[in-house]
Amino acid sequence: MPEQQQWTIAATEQPPEWLIEAVKQHIPGSSGIYAAKLLWQRGIKDDQQLTAFINHKAYQPASPFEFGQEMHLAIARLQQAYNAREKIAIWGDFDADGITATSVLWDGLGQFFKQNTQLIYYIPNRLKESHGLNNQGIDNLAKEGCKLIVTCDTGSTNIEEIIYAKQLGIDVIVTDHHTLPTERPPVAAIINPRYFPREHQLFHLSGVAVAYKLVEALYQTLPNVAKHPLEDLLDLVAVGLIADLVQLSGDCRYLAQVGIQRLQADFQQPVAARRRPGVGRLLELCQKSGDRPTDISFGLGPRINAVSRIQGDASFCVELLTSRDAKRCNELAEVTELANARRKSLQKDVQAQVAQKLTQLDLSTTSVIVLEDAQWPAGVLGLVAGQIAQETGRPTILLSTQGSGESACREPSRMGVGSGEDFAPIPYSLLPTPLARGSARSVNSVDLYQLVKDQAHLLHRFGGHPFAAGLSLLVENIPLFTAAINQQLRQSLGSTTLTSTVQADLTLTVADLGKDLFLEMKLLEPCGMGNPVPKLLIQNCWFENSWHRNQQDWQGKKVQYIKTEFDIRDDSSRSAFPGIWWGHYKDELPVGRCDCIAELDYNTFKKRYEIRLIAVRPSVNSALNTQHGLNPSYPLTPVILDWRNFPTPHYPLSPEGAPPPPLLLEDCPTNWDDLRAWLRRCLRISRSASGLDNQQQLAIAWSKPNHQPPNQIWLTLVGIAKYLSRTNQLVTRVQLLEKIGISDQTLLVGIKALKYLGFTVKRQDRYLQITWHPSDSAENFAEAAVAQFLAAVREEQFQRQYFAEVPLSTIVAIASSDNY
To answer: What's the predicted TM-score (pTM) here?
Structure first.
């Protein structure tokens, strides 16, 4: 189980009066105090800093030739290609930063080189090739007559592949922002901001921003060639910058500010007049307007990333972002939306399975979480690892042995994961041993890249940066790798304890929420790494009108992703304020007074201001007392004992007048109504008792669920149906449920699916008779029916996992709030 989060409150000094007054000038009618506090917290200490931070027109961006000799070399090589009419290939990457970087070079270099004849692009397949240059792709480009490769968001450490390209007569210009090689690679030029000191205004550029700087330099060198203004590329630059979570300071902040303005301006145009109809359609599908950084981080970015996670090949995303053909872009946008819906569903499934495996770990003795599974799709492991790292406060590595098609029998290529860097210290011999592939995410300033690198002798290959990495290793090495990396981090931490921490920036009341506060918060945008979205602490509040539902995609189909909506109130106002809590059920909201940390947002679709809940806990001032499982305000609330995962005590017959033994609830429920039925039963017994001293107790005594994969459950059900049909035996519903391990409701879905396979299920008294008469007439419907059954099993397993882990305080809160 994840440990309780630690909450911290940022130190809040009273900002100077000049700063408050300066903020008021930018937001007339506001108090200015909240924005001033945040700006002061974040190092804005003089008027010049404030002006440059807020107004991009007052900021002086760096020249692209700040990159010095390397930029001059790159431009000289591009001019040579321009004069000789050489064929150029853009080598991109498949995440949002790499896709937008490829798009910027495609549009930008496309002003100087004819697209599809002189200029082409290549994006590796995430599921087959992973990041970085590879020899097979270089061979293909050589066959097409390419004489120059321009990389973006990758390539810095692909030394062997660069040498190989040179042997084939292909020069390479690297534009990247990841780990630097120990020595300069044999390239025509390498443009990487990591060569700058950390305080340089270009140091934090992402891949798309580095690509933009190259195009900017070419525009300045050949000023009379391009037909479209350079600024037309800035909307794509903003998307890649914000989606890649780089620190938004210096030129990064400037480019994001200007780019968001251009993104919004284009979206406000009539559809037929948009420069980027694909981006506009994506914004419509995710119900955003393009005027907020969150429209990118929660809207465009995840959708672009989802394509390679689900399909592997994300090449069409460049066409989606750059084409002017609105009809074609609509088609591609809908494919992208479907991939994102699938990504959400897979991510939820894997997260539930990871949560189940976490229950088997002792986090008090675990420094690095390393988990593996043969069923996990590799494409979503990084997302889930990031969630688990945040929840537990521990670096998390998730590995998949799915397919095991890749083995150590081939020479490992140096591909990059996150950083474009890979390390293969041992070219494994021809052993047909399966590899595990996975993703790692860090937290609490733990340098995960260095941790993984120190175990390079156990790895097949890896790459990354301090907060994210990818790796592959022999399956047989996983236990040794897990022990070694845990020991290494424990030694480096010493007596320091890893915890999950969430920090609030300001303490507010519900009365403070609304448009005025939103406008003050918006003054800090665009937010991101180094300038996070302000976190607001609201104390002694409570929730009303809460409800949850499964999200639907743009076609109205249900997506297995939960969102809870609610109203929040406190004593500061008679009015409630709306909010949402992604990925949680309404029953997880505390009953009674509580404290919460949230972000303030504007919902473009509903046209309302709302909070996005980040963390919540019962307030120290709450009237709810769960220490003994009893709310004193409700004397007939059942006393609930938590005996989950413990041996159930044996109770002899009670003598007359002695307290009755607790009612045992040993079957894990799948919904709150099942649990409420037991609570009502306790109350009926208590009300018939002679006094409160003999109040009936309820012991929740179910064990951790041991779920089979849904596909296996389906095969078991089909196998039983075939056996019963062949032997003419009868079966009771209870026998079926016990054998398969599912609920009544899910069994009904399974029986419907069986009918599409030719089975007939008839009731005889309390027995079921199953016969089989195969037919082709329903084959077209069978696949959908089976999919419905598998979805029902997954949902039921998710619910059982939830109740296996739900805190006792939540169960007591539900008992205290219901009117029995």
So the answer is: 0.71
